[in-house]
Amino acid sequence: MRKGLILSALAMLLGMGGVQAQMVMDLQGPWDLALGDSAHYDDYVVLPGSLLTNDKGHEVDIHTQWTGSLYDSSYFYNPYMEPYRRKGQMKFPFFLTPEKHYVGNVWYRKYVYIPKEWSDQRITLFLERPHIETTVFVNGREVGHQMSLSVPHRYDVTKYIRKGERNEIAIRVYNGIENVCVGQDSHSVTDQTQGNWNGITGRIELQAQWKKLNIKRVRVTPHIKEGAVTVEVQLENHVDGLRFFPINDYNVSANIKYMNDGKVGKMVRGSTVIAEGSNIKFKFGLGRDVKFWDEFHPNLYRLTVEAGETVYETQFGLREIKAEGRQLYINNRPLFLRGTVENCCFPETGFPPTDEDEWMRIFKKCKEYGLNHVRFHSYCPPEAAFAAADRVGIYLQPEGPSWPNHGVKLRRGQAIDKYLLEESKRIVDEYGHHPSFVMMAAGNEPAGDWVSYCNDWVKQMHEYDSTKVYCGASVGGGWAWDGGSEYHVKGGARGLDWDRKAPSSDDDYYSGIEYPRNYKGTTPNDSPIIAHEQGQWCAFPDFKEIAQYTGVYKARNFEIFRDMLRDNGMEQMAEKFLMASGKLQTLCYKYEIERNLRTKDYAGFQLLGLNDYSGQGTALVGPLNVHWREKGYTTANDWCEFCYPLVLLARFPKFVYTNHEVLRVPVEAYNAFYADLKEVKAAYYITDDTMGVYHGGRFLSHEIPVGKNGELGVVEFPLDSIKQPTKMTLHAKMGNIIKNHWDFWVYPEKAGLCDNEMDDNSKLYVADTLDAHALKVLKKGGTVLLTAAGRVSLGSDVKQSYLPVFWNTSWFKMRPPHTTGAYIEKEHPLFKHGFPTDDWSNLNWWELLNKAQVMNLMELPKDYQSPIQPIDTWHVSRKLGMLIEARVLKGRLLMTTMDISNDLEHRIVARQMRKAILDYMQSDDFQPSLTLTPETISHFFTQQAPAVDMFTKDSPDELKPKIK
Fold first, then answer.
1. In 3-state terms, what secondary structure has residue 297?
2. CB 546 within 8 Å of CB 558
3. Helix, strand or coil for residue 656?
4. Which residues are within 8 A (CB) of 79 and not within 5 positions of it... i.e. 6 or more apart?
5. Does the chain have fewer CB atoms within 10 Å around its N or its C terminus?
6. Which H/E stretch holds residue 285?
7. Rounded CA gap, 869 and 854, in Å?
8. What is the dihedral of CA 113, 115, 121, 127, to 10 degrees?
9. CB–CB of 405/183 below 8 Å?
10. Distance of alpha carbon 721 from alpha carbon 729, whole angstroms
11. Phi-psi domain of 632 (left: phi exceeds 0; alpha: psi -120 through 50; beta: other)
12. Residues of the chain with pLDDT under 70
């Protein structure tokens, strides 16, 4: 066969990219197994897989040395946890529980027959995804050692193989982290996520290629302006003395075919070739009908490179990403990112999938929820993820496999400094041709002299491959400003400040974009910022989810939380807590996302996350569970109202009004499509909670350019026609698909009674404690209202705000708030007396719940539930209440910790709740079924609950990972 290099670019949608065509011997199946430093084989496993998927390793117990931080050490000391610490019955609250665990050397051995026909071939052992370090031996001779966490391990075993004979292949895999030094909580290694597994996943094979000339690397560089692409091919010589021939010795041709949905399209011919020694560059135009790649048009081409008998094939797309000022651009049009963080949580196997179908499922779910972007937290996914994202149209940010913070720091003389840069270049070499690979960060939230390191990393990576944009690290708001980054993933300009002020939707994050936290410039920041880990709003555990864990990791943390709920008399509340907290979680995500979308110059956001995070104390932050499945309290259609390429936004200055006011709300559009919208027709209407339409209208036709803050008009509606307390909803829509809605509440201007009127009522006594007069009234069969806001001690350790738990209370050492919304028994007769409500703490409850005291109901009967029940952190599940009612002595008593007494002139909701309570207590509906003693009521003012101690002792020393 004539020496030649043939380049052809074929347009098709491939499942796997970057594959060299050759004779292949698949090595999947049974392998001999030996645990430990010596290769004494006495067992077997099936590969691809891990020790866990083969049920091998050590039984987990309280002495298991985990890879990861155990911030909440109370598990090891808390008497309640004793049943879960028993060997054979282990259950952990801080992450999922595996059946087995193993860190150390493991030997895998297989015998294979190599045909004589391979005598003239170069033979490569290909290991797609080992974890972590591999050392290969062939016929007893050591071939080499590799320790990439992100790309396949490839070994040239040509000179070790005996052709026409049976050969022994042995692979020693070591999964300790001290040599890669990426940090014990890096998602590439930690037990918090995928687990620090030992094994090999994906393709395991011997590949035979032409011995003399091979393709070492192929790099694809698109040229959007020219509609062209440059393909750089680096050749390598595997035979001593082989010279690279001049370009005229090569038979060179080029052609392109575009395929859409598997159908062959038009062929384009013609290319130019430049050769310099072992490097050859092809540049060819893609014709008049060039197809660009983006989220809306995931057009792909097929590239095939032939060198001698070696063939390299992959898919690529024509796209260009760049940063100019605060804006990102894709193919010269503005790019707005709506992303989530993928945390490497795969409980069925413990490792990320290497099949494209599973990644297609995940990315399609992201698209279904209006997202176009995924960040991989401190790890890089396998090839299949990039190939799937290419097809779906998802922008990816892989990261170096490092969280150099807990025990590891940058530029402190540790191995991470060299390893991280080399690993980053390996990632670009392996996956950089994928159009979905648009951006990259060195890792997550580093420590040490990280700014100078990351600035140098960005510079070197840009020089290495300029087809992407680079960020030094994905960091929270407290981290320094790294001015060398081409874009920033940074916290600070995120969250909701509703713990300090009443909710609204007319604010934004612009000041945090102009002058980000720790930014030292005297002029405003002029680089793109993407919100780091936006959200982190929690919902209560879904115990129905436990049955979904059918693989190597079990949700025994959920079993502990379920037991706590049962032991505290709330087993029947599990589904109600899930739904109530989930509705609040969704509301918080809605208003935080909308705030980001209406912020001028904000480049986008990365949620944490669309699905739950199974580690770090169990962070139930997703509307989807860890398996990417719905929990039942929201749907993709609901979510896309506020998270989609086109979103209607309403600027409410507040959500609570009196009927003497006029509703005035500007409405605008966020347009992240690929084109301006012409002659837009939009409408609005206002309904009450029975869906009766009060008012409606149309906005004037507009053109809405790509970007933010496209004005549509102003909704104005006098509220004087609303005579009763009413929940209302403003709906806005554009066509039949684009719609959004916002609840607001209208109350009568004058409602409630003054204190003097109540005190003069001989049948109803109001006090703020159970004083002597209150007892006298109760003894005579009277009625007592205790307005105990700010006065209780039994429950004072529980810190409530309107917003739910952030991440979780275990990882953040019981940092408040401790509650995650409240369940409201809306069928309770109280609420028919002029206080309309949902069965969860919607925005009208902000005035009553935010920073309000709760009561710990530990002394009340086990089956009693408060009609207004704050939902405690699932790590404790104390039974809480903000209103109780009971028969005491001969009378009736209602006690509440809601503030329904102070500043009622300005606190509209509190005023209405006070009136509703008084009306209820003086009606025939007030018939408490619970009987309590005066002493039990008094204890709310005098007793303290047992202390919740999650962090007074550090984790045992022997469980702390050792880092070099």
1. coil
2. yes
3. strand
4. none
5. N
6. strand 279-285
7. 9
8. -30
9. yes
10. 15
11. left
12. 1-22, 212, 238-273, 277, 308, 751-762, 951-964
